[in-house]
Design a protein that fits this description.
SMAD_FHA_dom_sf; 4 domains; 11 helices; FHA domain-containing protein; 6-stranded mixed sheet
């Protein structure tokens, strides 16, 4: 061995003996070093250690690191039988993982795996699974634009691909029914919307556009109508006199401003949210006459769990089988930001997005299974912040400023740094909301919808 090669060889040898296998692999990667027999022998030993680490990482469900180890071992020692065996195990693991994600309805997560593993996974199932993931994501994008017939076609294509090696998941059949129902409702709303546009009934146009955007957040007709209605209303309203109390429009009684324990928040172009105002909420099965504040579609009991806000903290009380972060929960315990709950096959993630507010958010992990259908649940404390900042309770990327909804007893007010309208009446900075209010500004629009109280059966 040439003297110029001796120093890096001995450094690699020493690094290997003290367990620094990545450093040893880096040193052995110097040009020309592995042409020498001692270096080749050491390279095989280092490659063996890296492959052993790849096995451990595979067992720990860390395929990305395992793939990197395989590539490093391949550069050092070539395609050995041991490497080929681990590569096959890893390919099978990635393919099985993608299959499980699709079966659970996590098709966006599955799609993200395609560029990572497509060149690495020789499993014959991979191509079919990748095409299935693309079909399901395409169906979701089409549905968001209100193209429900095309979305159903893409969904059926994905279901057809699944039939080659597995039965269609129940969530796919549910999603077909949701698309079909939204298509019927959406077509009726679109026809009403166009008729009201022609008659220039802008308040009605704004309300119908909001309802249509709740079904399809990127619906082009509804998005255009919403902007037209907001502009028309701004040009028609008479600004309130300086110092005048903001009005929700017309003469309203005190009772009409009172909010119940729950309401729906429909944000145009963003989504729909179930807002629970009380300190304690009951989670249970969605069924007629249910007492559950949060009704989920799954294998749940009528009273499955309670979440309680205690000052600035939240507690979870299981009333039936419940898993918290993968572990069975027995008895009352704390809920921490980022905790994952599983109830009757439905997975929820608990978050506390805003450091200055006790309001929390429950978002779905995988398939949304709730009645009424919404994107997330907000457990509202004193306030709820909507807007473009990443730490808001609802992130509205296209808005220019934050909007704060805050409670005052059984009433709700809206605050924004700038003008906006509530039910066609101009407000500056602050406005009183009603349970059926429609709120618009130059860059946003949202509506509230009251919900009946839960039945105590």
């Amino acid at each position: 061995m040439l003297r110029s090669m001796t120093i890096p060889f001995h450094a690699a040898e020493q690094a290997f003996h003290v367990g620094q296998i990545d450093e040893a692999a880096r040193l052995l990667g110097q040009p020309g070093l592995v042409r020498h027999e001692p270096a080749r022998t050491l390279a095989k030993q280092v490659a063996g250690a890296i492959l052993e680490r790849a096995r451990r990482r595979l067992a720990q469900h860390n395929p990305a690191s395992a793939w990197r180890d395989l590539e490093a071992a391949l550069r050092l020692a070539g395609p050995t039988p041991e490497l080929q065996a681990i590569r096959q195990q890893l390919a099978n693991h990635c393919t099985d993982q993608m299959e499980q994600q699709l079966a659970a309805g996590e098709y966006e997560t599955a799609l993200q795996q395609i560029p990572l593993w497509e060149s690495q996974a020789p499993d014959p199932r991979w191509a079919s699974l990748a095409e299935r993931a693309r079909s399901l994501v395409a169906a979701d994008k089409l549905a968001r634009r209100g193209c429900w017939a095309e979305a159903i076609e893409q969904l059926n294509h994905g279901v057809g691909l699944a039939n080659s090696h597995a039965s269609p998941a129940a969530w796919q059949e549910e999603l077909q029914a949701v698309y079909a129902s939204r298509m019927q409702s959406g077509q009726e709303l679109a026809a009403q919307l166009q008729q009201e546009q022609q008659q220039e009934n802008w308040e009605v146009v704004g309300r119908l556009a909001g309802q249509l955007l709740a079904l399809a957040p990127e619906h082009p007709l509804a998005s255009t109508a919403k902007r037209q209605a907001a502009a028309a209303i701004r040009s028609l309203v008479v600004p309130s006199a300086e110092g005048q109390r903001p009005s929700v429009g017309g003469e309203v009684s005190s009772d009409s401003l009172r909010f119940g324990s729950r309401f729906l928040l429909w944000i145009d172009g963003v989504g729909g949210y179930l807002v629970c105002r009380q300190k304690e909420v009951l989670i249970g099965q969605a069924r007629p006459g249910s007492a559950a504040d949060i009704g989920l579609l799954g294998d749940l009991t009528r009273e499955h769990a309670r979440i309680r806000r205690d000052g600035e903290e939240y507690l979870i009380e299981p009333l039936a089988e419940l898993r918290q972060n993968g572990q069975p929960r027995q008895g009352v315990g704390p809920l921490i930001d980022g905790d994952e709950l599983e109830l009757g096959g439905v997975r929820l993630r608990f978050t506390r997005p805003h450091a200055l507010s006790a309001t929390a958010r429950l978002e779905f992990v995988g398939r949304r299974r709730i009645q009424p259908t919404v994107d997330a649940i907000l457990l509202m404390a004193e306030s709820c912040v909507l807007g473009p900042n990443w730490h808001n309770h609802v992130v509205c990327r296209d808005w220019t400023d934050d909007v704060v909804l805050f409670q005052q007893g059984d009433r709700l007010q809206c605050r924004r740094a700038g003008p906006f309208t509530i039910a066609g009446r101009s407000c500056e900075g602050l406005g009183q909301l009603s349970p059926t209010a429609h709120v618009t500004a130059e860059d946003f629009s949202f509506s509230l919808e009251s919900l009946p109280p839960c039945s105590p059966y």
